[in-house]
Each structure stands twice: as structure tokens, then as C-alpha cells.
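Q: Here's a chain of 341 amino acids. Please give me its 3D structure as C-alpha cells.
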Amino acid sequence: MNRDGNDTIMIRTAPVMFDQPEITMTAAAAPADAPFFIALNAGSGHSETEERRTTIDTILRAAGRQFHLTIIDQPGTIDQIAAELAARAAAAGGVLVAAGGDGTINAVARQAVDHGCAFGVLPQGTFNYFARTHGIPEELDEAVHALLAARIHPVQVGMVNDRMFLVNASIGLYPKLLEEREADKKQFGRSRLVAALSALKTVLSPHRRLRLVLHIDGKLERLRTATFFVGNNRLQMEQIGIDPMSEAVEDGRLAAMAPRTRGKLGMLWLMLHGALGRMGRLDHADELATFSFKQMEVKVRKLARRHQVKVATDGEVTMMSNPLQFRVLEGQLLLLKPTPA
């Protein structure tokens, strides 16, 4: 039993499987008595976590809604806890809920897809791209109230090899930036200024350009770039300033981008804006290569580490086998979205 008095069973997770049947892309009402199984990430510290737990508890108890809240205070246990909560949600006809940033939301969403249960979000991150794209409030009390009145909407997710992403996946300089940014945030605090200064340090350090061979929906392309980025989020595409790409991710496709710039000053401009969540207007042919797709193979040539590529998915960095296989899964995530006012 955890410190909140809620029962948490630590179990070994099975491999995540994504061979779910195709789901019709229409909204449906969520059962008014469906219990919530909430995974709350305690990454911001005890006092903030306790305040968030109290807010969730107070609102749901006042609404008379059954819920089970588990605090995740060890990052290495998130997959196990999310899998256990997803199994309970599926058995009870309930809703699996992630309370945290995009990385936490990704980890919990994987289990929602695997177990076929409905999924809710209480955003607690820096940029909250996934939540904002789907109209979910960033203020916790508003997000909890919205969850109570939400409807189920099947939404698409992206895949790279066997790993899911909701917002983006990337290779090259951007995963390195994320790793160093996370280390700097732990030392200096979580803010957009720290993110920008960390990006400055990363971009000015030595880095090499990727040599990529792409098979895009059956067509062969070659590309050289410092970083390669695949997006699955309309809001992020709009902030980058590539309107056709934002339309693509609303139309069952993924959006790929690669900066053409060779100089450090040009790359610095791109990455600083990316670290701040505002990449500016980058839809110029001489600055950025862009295209959309449903399936794509990306082979990285002349790897330093044989057959392994460092890949960032929704802010989490892992090593994956080369070549990388990107694809779309339409309607596989049953997301609770607020009803528009």
C-alpha cells in the first residue's frame, strides 16, 4: 500500500503489443460511472506532488467518482505501475489516466493501447503539446473537471520500431539536446530559460551530420542533416510554422522535417526556438526539408555504434535497431477529450 493509502501491486510487464483491431474514428460518450485509475508522476518534488494529489482527490470525491490514485516516485517503475493500472482499468471498464509531462503520458498511453482501455490526461509538463492539441486544460483543477465531462475520441499514434510516440520522434542532435537539457534541469531547475541555455551549449559543441537513406511510402531518398524529426502533433507543427505539416498529422499521416543548414549559427537558431517550444517560421526551402508519410524506413549510414541509433520519443531517449521503421497507427488510442464549449 502506498503513502496515499491506495493499493499498488508491482508486477512484471509483458511486451507491449499493438495489434489492436481498427477502430472507427468517431467520438463516444464515456460511462458516467467508469472508475479512474490514475498514475501521478512525482518528478517535481514532494510538496508539488502532495498539492496535485489533494486537488485530484478533492474534485473527484466531490463529484462522487470512484478512483484509484497511485504516485510514481521512482522513474524506473512507471511501466510496471502503468501496466498494472491498465489491467485493472480494462477489467473494470474504467479509464487509465496519466498525470505528468509528455514522457509520462507516453509511457501510460502505451499501456492503454496495449490493454484496449480508455485513456485520460492531466497535463503537468513544460510544453504539454499532446494535451493542448486535444483541448485538455493545463491547469490541474480544470483538467480534472474536464475529464469528468469528456467524450472518448480515437486518435492516431506514431510508431518507430516497436515504440510509440504521441508528439514526436527524432534522431541526431535533438536527442543529444534532450539528454543534456534534462541533466541541466536537474541541476538548475525546470524553466524555458534553462532549456534555451542548455540548447545553446549543446549546439555549440562538436557534432556530426547524419547520412540517411530513406524509403518513404516506397520511394527512395537520401538526406544529410544534423537532426531528423518526425512529428505527430498539430500544435507543434503550427508553432514550427509549417502549416501543410500540421494538416498532415490531422489527416492520418506523420510529418518529417530535417534542417538543411550547415552552419552552427543557423542550427543554433533552429534548436533554441525548438527548446523554447517556439521554432518560428521555418517553412523556407533553404532552411528545412519537409514531407509527410504513412510508412517510412530510415537507415543511418556509418554509425559509431553498430546497428544502434539513439532515438528520442516524446522526450525520452532510447537506443534502437538500425534501420528505423516509422508508421502510423490510426484510432488506436481511446482518448477522453473535453467537449468544446
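Q: Can you summarize the key feature?
A: The first helix runs from residue 46 to 62.
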